[in-house]
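[agent] plan:
  1. take the single chain provided in the ticket
  2. run structure prediction with default settings
  3. attach structure tokens to the ticket
  4. add a short note for the reviewer (M.T.)
[agent] executing step 1
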Amino acid sequence: MQPPPRKVKVTQELKNIQVEQMTKLQAKHQAECELLEDIRAFSQKRAAIEREYAQTLWRFPLPHVSPSKCFEGMLATGKSGSSSSSSSGEENSRVIDKVAYDVFWH
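[agent] step 2 finished; step 3 output follows
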């Protein structure tokens, strides 16, 4: 004959369940934090590689393409802007050259 099962206090049983759940929650939180850190490190490395690649590409001599022609579409106002001698065309060209410089060298 077996002894009768021990009666555990309900509060003690609930406390044990809560401790177990907290342990699992902390482990899940730690795993998610590590995943986010890995993603951040990957993104930083990828950005550095892409920046280096863009700078390398920018160094290639392309006599037929200037920075203002590459980024002309970014500030399209309905006019060409690159061949115009008006002040707005010159201003657009200066802004486009600045954007090109900032994108590839910073």
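[agent] step 4 note for reviewer: The two ends are 82 Å apart (CA to CA).
[agent] ticket updated
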